[in-house]
Each structure stands twice: as structure tokens, then as C-alpha cells.
Design brief:
The protein is mainly α and 176 residues long. The protein has helices spanning 3-23, 28-41, 50-69, 75-88, 92-114, 118-133, 152-165. α1 (3-23) runs antiparallel to α2 and α2 (28-41) runs antiparallel to α3.
Amino acid sequence: MHLLPMAITLSVSGVALYIDLYYHKVFNWLTLPAIGIGLILGFIPGQGGWLSHLIGFGVGFGIFFIFYILRIIGGGDVKLMAGLGAIMGYPFILGLAFYSLIAGAFLGILEMAINRRVIRGIKNIFMFFKLGITPGTKPYIPRESLGKFPFAVSIFIGVIISFLTGGNIPLTGGRI
């Protein structure tokens, strides 16, 4: 891992953490420049190459766009992960996505339990998978969110764990 992308990633995710906790939103003025800086980093010698940063952007966006469609996270979180993927590149984004999702699942279940929304959350997940595998049915998209959850907290936790593990995912012998 290179120091410059790590410093930018830590800075961007730290600012996003603060903003999401305070405003319950991750703003474009943070995410869009992060995407641009990340893609530019790919052209600097010794930073992994432009293709790695472009794929990192695509993987970060693609994985988290699915959760946006399901109304699990907001659009700012999707753009934040796309930006962090562009900054750190591929395959590091895979570990970051993995750890962010694990942290988000844990914190989301905790938040649902505190606010007594566990049953509705389980129903949404069940209906999504049931209708997703039943031929001839439309995919299930919940009508409403289960509540506001500052997902940038999970992303920041994912960044820290990814840095500590080098982006490696346990039980895979390294990255996926």
C-alpha cells in the first residue's frame, strides 16, 4: 500500500464520518473530488496504474449501488465507496467493501434492535430473496427505509480494518 492513497482515503473517510454523523448525509463536494483524485492517482507512476483505479471505482460503485436500490444506504455512501475504490484501486476495494459491509450489518442490526425494527428488517430481506428466486416475479424493493443510519461509520471502520489487514479478507488466502 502506498502512503499517499492511504492518507487521502483516511482523510476523506474521516470527513465523511463526521459529516454523516452530524448531517446524516455525505455531500457531493466530498465524494466527487475524491473520485476525480482517485482516477488521477492512477496516472502517477508507482500508484498501481490507471486500470486498477478505474476498476476500483467501478467495483466500489457497483457493489454499493445494489444496497442503494434496496434502500439500505444513501447515494452519498455509494459515491463515497466509488471514490475510495478509485483512490485505493483494485483489489484493495474488495477488502474495504467486505469489512464495511460486515461493520454495517453489525451496526444495522444493533440499530434495528434498539429501535425495535428487527421484524420488518427480516421481512424485507426474506421478501427480497423469495421474490428474487421465484420465476416470473418482479424483484422486491421495499417501499420505505428502515430508518436513517450513518453508513459512513461502517465505511470508516472498514477503512481502518482494511489498513490493518492490508485489504486481505480472512479465509480466502488473501483477497478474493
